[in-house]
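Exercise (ungraded).
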Amino acid sequence: MIAHAQPELTKNQALVFGSLSDAGGPLTAYAILDLLRENGFRAPLQVYRALDKLVEYGMVHRLESLNAFVACSHKGCAEHGTAAFAICENCGDVSEFTPDEVIKLLKEWTQAEGFTLARTTIELRGTCRDCISQPN
Amino acid sequence: MIAHAQPELTKNQALVFGSLSDAGGPLTAYAILDLLRENGFRAPLQVYRALDKLVEYGMVHRLESLNAFVACSHKGCAEHGTAAFAICENCGDVSEFTPDEVIKLLKEWTQAEGFTLARTTIELRGTCRDCISQPN
DNA sequence: GGAAGTGGCGTTATATTATTACATACTTTC
DNA sequence: GAAAGTATGTAATAATATAACGCCACTTCC
């Protein structure tokens, strides 16, 4: 478990985090940029810089297999372990969960290998329950 | 466990697979393109099309967190389960392994959720044993 | 044999994602 | 208030990936 300080956000960081929270799902950096143009955003770097910090603070996760970003689903982004994501390829819905037992096993593997673990990516692609039961 | 047929490769597929095998580590699509220019490759699509097939055949894995590709490390790419990767951020070395117990736990989660799993990405970022013991 | 389908290939152009480089401003610290 | 650190704005560009088109080789089915 890693405790994340809950720092004061700068204006840009707050705007980016707000759009991700409001979206309720993953957004690409350029989608965020378009949403924030009316707030004065002009360039990708404004988004990427804010995202870097938000990811560092643990408030936003990067979805590697989508090249997109999503607000952490934990209330207040309180301290929690490594997250995993189930991504529905039909509706785009993303479920975040915390597979502690899986993380434990992976840590055991890294320790046996002498590998110093910095960051873990676990992403499941497939079809969510709703999309299976309600085929379009 | 999924059995992958070991199909005849086309000329382009064989060239792309050859560069990945020779490299012994991950390459980006554009790095492959540059390696294969002397073999007549001119455009990214030639690489991406071959990679798509090789990934489909299970002979090449895509590393989502690197936007790169790596030849499967299993001998002859025989049938095997979902792979995981430990990526050294210092030397770039990638270790492929097959964490069956982890996959089993993740499958249990998906079944409990009614999520139909199509593809699993597990990537560990950190520092390998050699780079820890021989700091530059 | 020929029509129709399939898959691979080559090429150009373009879309999407991310970073480099440089200048400016604000804030904290001493 | 000078120095150091952090955030910002902007333009330009790099890196990654796909769309659209036409061509050719092969099959298969009548």
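Further reading is listed at the end of the chapter. For now, observe: Chain A touches chain B at residues 64-65, 84, 86, 88-89, 95, 97, 99, 101-102, 105-106, 109-110, 113-129, 132-133 (CB under 8 Å). Chain A has one domain: 11-130.
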